[in-house]
Amino acid sequence: MTSFSGQSAGGWPLVGALAFGQLVSWGALHYAFTLFVAPMEAELGWSREALNGALSAGLVASALAAYPAGRWIDRFGGRGIMTTGTLLGALMLLAWSRVGDLAVFFAIWIAIGVAAAGTLYGPVFAVLVRLYPADYSRRITVLTLVGGFASTVFIPLTQFLIASLGWRDALVALAGIVLIGPLPIHFFLLRDAAPVGASTIPTADGALRRALGSRAFWGLAVCFTASSAVLSAFIFHFVPLLSERGFALATIVAAFTVFGPCQVAGRLVLLGLGARASAIVSGRIAVLLPLAAIAMLLVPVEATILPFLFLAVYGLANGVMTIVRGTAVPELLGREGYGAITGALTLPASLAAAFAPYAAAWLWAATGGYDAVIMAALVGAAVAAIGFWSASG
Question: pLDDT confidence of 202, banded at 50, 70, 90?
Fold first, then answer.
């Protein structure tokens, strides 16, 4: 792997800046959405299904754009696409602030999905692997450690902005935060363009072709797709699922507060272990934890501690798995063509995440309860574990 702009020797200030950019980008382009649903329903009269349908359209667009974004980074580096994605995201937040037509809202979220494909974890992981081939794992861990606080920071911040300014001007404020935060970081600080004359595309294409012929690639594809589907289904159905089991809403909401900190705890453990926590070892542990968490939901008890335990274990697993998604590819498949390979892996995983909540809702309606959903999730978690152990065996 070629070093770019002499940054591979150090570069921790850049990693810190990119981490801050991820915190803001995730907060503004992803986590803030849920807080705008109720005020938009009240003002515009659109249904909750329609509003969430736009979000799903954005997730699908992000999935479809992941491979082209990764391939672009392999060829040209991350500066151009991350700057463009950040600017597009900010402009779409401004457009959203003035929306009055549902079709336009869908178009805005499709554009936000494309912006996310060029801005969030996938592209920045590719940048870190590209710039720091000897130390990418530690830097990815630090970056996700900071990014893990995006919901902690932006959910209360967004709620404050909506309460103070109204939902439309709150979006203008979020756009401003993106423009003065991540945008100058990506444009002015990121310098990872390939040297003039570098032949990166043939190398990247060859690396992707080799990856497609390997068991490791398909094992990772199965793992990431299944785990994304299970997590997405639980995120959107956890409240009604536990309500069906007799837990009070206040208990369920309180339990959700442990998910984020446990994700951070998992990443801190990896940071402390350093080189001893390889992607293979970390991944093999991370894919087993959701099995234990989901099995808790099969226990026929209504102990108040149950939702907290479930989300604590699942949060720990997801915190580690986020890093494994960034480090398993170079460890198992090599660093060449990292962007294209991770983009190819992201496509089915993101599509699964987009459609899993609807599949879970259909299964719930067809069977009259969440027992079948829990069993399907258990099977999905088992498939994810088998996929990763097969890839790393």
Answer: low
Is the pLDDT at 5 greater than 60? The verdict is no
Q: What is the mean pLDDT of residues 194-208?
A: 58
Tell me the per-residue pLDDT of 46-72, one tens digit each, with 9 for 90 and over: 987 888 889 889 989 999 999 999 989
Q: How confident is the model at residue 10 (pLDDT cuts 50, 70, 90)?
A: low
- Domains defined along the chain, listed by start: 8-198 (1.20.1250.20), 203-392 (1.20.1250.20)
- Kindly report whether the global pTM for this prediction surpasses the value 0.70: yes
Per-residue 3-state assignment (H helix, E strand, C coil) for the chain: CCCCCCHHHCCHHHHHHHHHHHHHHHHHHHHCHHHHHHHHHHHHCCCHHHHHHHHHHHHHHHHHHHHHHHHHHHHHCCHHHHHHHHHHHHHHHHHHCCCCCHHHHHHHHHHHHHHHHCCCHHHHHHHHHHHCCCCHHHHHHHHHHHHCCHHHHHHHHHHHHHHHHCHHHHHHHHHHHHHHCHHHHHHHHCCCCCCCCCCHHHHHHHHHHHHHCCHHHHHHHHHHHHHHHHHHHHHHHHHHHHHHCCCCHHHHHHHHCCHHHHHHHHHHHHHHHHHHCCHHHHHHHHCCHHHHHHHHCCCCCCCCHHHHHHHHHHHHHHHHHHHHHHHHHHHHHCCCCHHHHHHHHHHHHHHHHHHHHHHHHHHHHHHCCCHHHHHHHHHHHHHHHHHHHHHHC
Residue 202 CB neighbours (<10 A):
10
Whole-number pLDDT of residue 194: 54
